[in-house]
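[step 3/7] inverse_fold.run input=structure_tokens len=453
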């Protein structure tokens, strides 16, 4: 339909152009008085637009379209303007009608654009409504995601606080390890050569070293000294954790613990968390943890499982290697019994012993259980490695009121004033020592001193 309308408009425009050219030719010949002009003017009037259909190219032979005639009828623009000015009255209606038709045509041509813009505005309005809805939906989802993220952040903050506390404890533990390693290195140089029984022991142990073990004797000795340091530090850390837990949850138990310690400690210190109190608690815990260490299976009246001594040493060392890297997370997942029934029995037995000493029956929190597990694992590994030697390494214990001997004992609270006092006796043993080949790893004790009078 649009192509048909366009064709009719073109035909009308061509007809009007033919009339204008005929008028132009008549004006050029100066025949304005000819009856042809009134016919043209009358036929060109807007009031009778269809009258133009009565005229044809034969009525105006001058206007017959031809390339040659067009070439011969060229007139300068100045002449055309003068002629058109002289006949302004006659051409006015013709041109006004033509331009009105042109404006009408332009308006009709512009109407699709207006409609298109109107459709576009409607589309934009609809799109705006849709975009608002989508934005509301996105905002709701963003709020939900924000709430979830805030919950995760709060969980992470609490986790970070716990990690910081554990990191502080780990740093303290590492510092104590460094100090213990330094003391252990210094203790290596303590050779006991002036005792006849130790010399015999040294010769017999050197002559009976078994080279069939997976590692050398020197490596086993170094490993044993390292485990001793770890065991001492882990028990110390367990005692600190235990005191803090008791102070937070059970004040009556603190009083019981203080009275229990006072039986061994006669001091005027008002601090319940003094070093002396910590060392006395450590002594009680070590006494329970190292009980029956001399037995081959770390149990009172326990019997050997493998009759062949060499095979028994190999199995002890294999068990040591298997449990050396056992972590707390693995214990939480599968339990200690999954990894070793003997170690599980040992943990249950020692935990019951400590609970009976403290008269504490309530369940232990996880951080206290973890600290106990670390100390129990170190002492169990120490026993396995000690019985991997041939002969097994012996533990060194001292009893109360024993005369202090600096070759076998170390007083951990001795100061400069007490060094001048010659008479000293053992008040309590805090940590046991060990005979390691031809060397002695001294036990740690608290002493009571008497003035030399």
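[step 3/7] decode complete -> sequence:
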């Amino acid at each position: 339909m649009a192509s048909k309308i366009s064709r009719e408009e073109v035909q009308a425009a061509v007809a009007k152009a033919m009339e204008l050219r005929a008028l132009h030719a008549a004006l050029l010949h100066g025949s304005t008085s000819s009856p042809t002009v009134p016919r043209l003017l009358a036929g060109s009037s807007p009031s009778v637009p269809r009258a133009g259909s009565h005229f044809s190219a034969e009525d105006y032979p001058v206007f017959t379209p031809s390339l040659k005639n067009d070439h011969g009828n060229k007139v300068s623009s100045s002449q055309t303007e003068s002629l058109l000015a002289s006949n302004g009255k006659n051409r006015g209606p013709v041109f006004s009608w033509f331009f009105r038709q042109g404006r009408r045509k332009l308006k009709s041509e512009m109407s699709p654009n207006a409609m298109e813009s109107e459709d576009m505005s409607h589309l934009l309005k609809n799109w705006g409504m849709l975009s608002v809805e989508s934005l509301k939906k996105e905002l709701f989802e963003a709020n939900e995601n924000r709430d979830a993220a805030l919950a995760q952040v709060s969980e992470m903050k609490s986790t970070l606080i716990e990690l910081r506390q554990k990191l502080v404890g780990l740093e303290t533990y590492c510092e104590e390890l460094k100090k213990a390693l330094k003391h252990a290195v210094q203790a290596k140089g303590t050779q006991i050569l002036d005792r006849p029984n130790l010399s015999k022991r040294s010769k017999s142990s050197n002559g009976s070293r078994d080279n069939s073990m997976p590692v050398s004797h020197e490596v086993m000795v170094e490993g044993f000294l390292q485990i001793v340091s770890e065991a001492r530090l882990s028990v110390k850390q367990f005692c600190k954790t235990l005191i803090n837990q008791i102070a937070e949850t059970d004040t009556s138990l603190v009083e019981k613990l203080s009275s229990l310690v006072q039986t061994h400690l006669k001091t005027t210190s008002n601090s319940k968390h003094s070093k002396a109190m910590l060392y006395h608690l450590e002594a009680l815990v070590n006494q329970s943890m190292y009980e029956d260490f001399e037995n081959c299976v770390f149990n009172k009246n326990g019997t050997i499982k493998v009759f062949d001594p060499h095979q028994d040493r190999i199995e002890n060392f294999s068990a040591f290697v298997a449990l050396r890297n056992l972590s707390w997370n693995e214990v939480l997942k599968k339990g200690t019994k999954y990894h070793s029934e003997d170690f599980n029995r040992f943990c249950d037995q020692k935990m019951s012993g400590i609970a009976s000493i403290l008269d504490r029956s309530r369940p232990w929190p996880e951080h206290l259980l973890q600290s106990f597990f670390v100390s129990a694992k170190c002492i169990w590994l120490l026993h396995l490695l000690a019985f991997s030697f041939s002969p097994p390494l012996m533990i060194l214990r001292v009893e109360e009121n024993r005369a202090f001997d600096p070759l076998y004992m170390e007083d951990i609270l001795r100061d400069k004033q007490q060094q001048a006092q010659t008479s000293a006796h053992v008040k309590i043993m805090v940590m046991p020592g060990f005979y390691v080949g031809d060397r002695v790893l001294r036990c740690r004790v608290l002493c009571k001193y008497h003035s030399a009078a």
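[step 4/7] annotate
The beta strands are 394-396, 409-411, 423-431, 433-436, 439-441, 443-450.
Residues 1-156 form one domain.
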